[in-house]
Amino acid sequence: MAVVLAVLSAGSAIRQPLYDLFQRMAPQSAEPARVQVVTIDAPSLAAVGGWPWSRYTMARLTEAIAARGAKVIGYDFLFPEADRLTPQLFASLYPELPPATADEIRKLPSMDAVFARVIGRSPVVLARAGVDRGSYDTLDAAAPLPPEAQFVGPRSNRIAAYPEVVANLPILDGAALGHGLVNGPKDPDGVMRRVPLVARAAGALTPGFALELVRIAEGEDKVALEGDGGRLQAVRLGRHRLPVDAEGRMTLRFQGLAGPAVTSAVDLLRGGRASRDFAGKIVVVGLTAAGTSDVVTTPRLSETFGVLVQAEAANDILADVALSRPDWAVPLEWTLSLLIALAAWLLVPRLGLTAIVAAALGLTAVAVSGAYAAFLSGALIDPGPMILPGVATAGTMIALLFVEGGKVQARLRAALDEERLTAAKVAGELSAAAEIQAGMLLPREALHRLAKGVDVDAVVHPAKAVGGDLYDAFMIDETRLCFLVGDVTGKGLAAALFMALGKALSRSLLMRPPVALDVALANINAELSHDNGEMMALSLLVGVLDTTDGRLELCNAGFENPLLIDASGGVRELKLEGGPALCVVDSYPYPVEIHGLAPGETLVVYSDGVTEAQDTAGALFTRAAAMAVLAGGAGRPLAVLIEDLVSAVRVFEAGEDPSDDLTVLAVRRPG
């Protein structure tokens, strides 16, 4: 809205510079000029003398132009004073003349009369100038003759008006075929873009100088005014319809008059100009010598002469190429402005910045190109109202989007910071939980010192920060070693909590006064199943080894069968009957299975993190693969044996995330 108000208040100040650019860009007319200009220039003044010239010289110039076939001759300056060489004035300058001689001189005809007779024999249009009331130029001047043109049609009260008029000597005015106003106000920036076609001078409607030249040249009597009492729209002269503004001024399309269309007056006085340059043309005579006051600025030239502007105006009238601002221009411009602004409002949030800039540049190019095409056809269309509100809307939307984007980014940063803080807290808690869980398991050094005559080692590798696998080993009495390996269903924090519960409960029940292994396992199953709302399960393998004779009691609740490495390095599977995982079936009678661990033999127990490990193709690390890794391991230290198995699993996974927690426990009776 601010831009709309600015465009409306600026008015022509915005569009005129663009129209001036179009005037400079427009090609010069290829058609020969229909108006010829005769200039009283510096060479003419040098040859004839200073200005003003004698009326006798002006009469000779008029005869020379008329003899070359000019259709009408217009003088773009006035003759308001008597000739300086009139006989009466000459006789008064020399009082020493004899009276008889002075009387004879006074009886001679004046040069003004000679010029008037030539004007009367030639198609001449003389200029007039409208002035304000009380102008020095109108003092003691006789009332001018009314203009010859007849005006018909509504006469707008907004037509430019001049209270008084400066005319030529009555003897000259009375001899001329027509009279036209040569003056007209410049635009506020001092540029001459328009000439009046009609104005009120001393109360009478008077045609503009260019219009009067064309009227006389085409033999028309009437000038029709189109419009209403409030606004003049056009002036019609014969076949020509000339659009004008409310004050009666026509906007010129400057096509350029130069070269053959301009002739120096001295060439005509010497008789050196070919007659075909003037035949059937309008000839305008004006001053172009240095020091003359008739210097103006036009859209195409910073300095030119008023006579050339009048010639351009007459040429525009004859060619019907005058510029106008059609009545439909304003509705078209503001309708397109509204549509473009709505499009910007709707599309800017959906387009990228590059697309927006490209669209703005493309729209500007189309609007300016369309305005230029309309200019070439004579219509003045202003692209400013079409472009500027839309650009302002797009700019406002972009600014709002940046502001809103900043707010969204601030909210996202705050949310991200909150998530990072939460993640840090969780990571800290998980780290603490991992440390606590690791602290619940016996260190590997403690396992080595646990029992005399038996080596024990174990590792746990959680799939996440914390896991659900467990191992434990302790002496039930002086000769019996109890060990166990468990795997809670699932992984992560929940499995770790259930693992801690299972480990504590298992150690508590297995260390009580001597109780059968199957009874202890049944008690563990019962305790874990109580209030197990999450329906979690624990696979558990419990073994009791008599360190004196190698008697090995095993009780399996859904766990992997262990592997036995004999003294020669051979590997075999201890197939156990076992039963389901704990918390799956209440009161299940888990059998106690008796085996022996001879000197030099090693029992290896591992969780399903070994046999369920997957490579990139989804294949599983099988029990056979584990047996192949452990083969020949009778002489290797338990730590090396375990690390070989873990390393083989990690190599098999080839960098993939572990599918489950991995636990390995080994028990060996030295040879």
Describe this structure in words.
- This protein has 671 residues and is an alpha/beta fold.
- The protein has 3 domains: 1-29 and 347-440; 32-319, no CATH class; 443-668, Phosphatase 2c, domain 1, CATH 3.60.40.
- It is built from 20 helices and 28 strands.
- Strands 1, 2, 3, 6, 7, 15 and 16 form a 7-stranded mixed sheet that branches. It has a 5-stranded antiparallel sheet with strand order 19-28-27-24-25.
- The longest helix has 57 residues, at 384-440.
- The radius of gyration is 58 Å and the shape is rod-shaped.
- The two termini are 99 Å apart.
- Count of DSSP-assigned helices: 20
Major sheet: size, sense and barrel closure?
7 strands, mixed
Main structural class = alpha/beta
Proportion in helices: 25-40%
Cα shape: rod-shaped
List keywords for this structure.
about 675 residues, alpha/beta, Phosphatase 2c, domain 1, 3 domains, 5-stranded antiparallel beta sheet
Short description:
This protein is α/β, with parallel strands linked by helices and 671 residues long. Helices cover 40% and strands 20% of the residues. Helix 9 (209-218) packs across helix 11 (306-319) and helix 16 packs antiparallel against helix 17.
Topology at a glance:
Layout: H1 2-10, H2 12-25, E1 35-40, H3 42-48, H4 55-67, E2 72-75, H5 87-93, H6 99-107, H7 111-121, E3 124-131, E4 150-152, E5 161-162, E6 164-166, H8 170-173, E7 178-181, E8 194-196, E9 198-201, E10 204-207, H9 209-218, E11 222-227, E12 232-237, E13 240-243, E14 249-251, E15 262-264, H10 265-269, E16 282-287, E17 295-296, E18 304-305, H11 306-319, H12 329-347, H13 353-376, H14 384-440, H15 444-448, E19 455-461, E20 469-475, E21 480-488, H16 493-510, H17 517-529, E22 538-546, E23 551-557, E24 563-565, E25 571-573, E26 593-596, E27 602-606, H18 608-611, H19 623-630, H20 638-653, E28 662-668
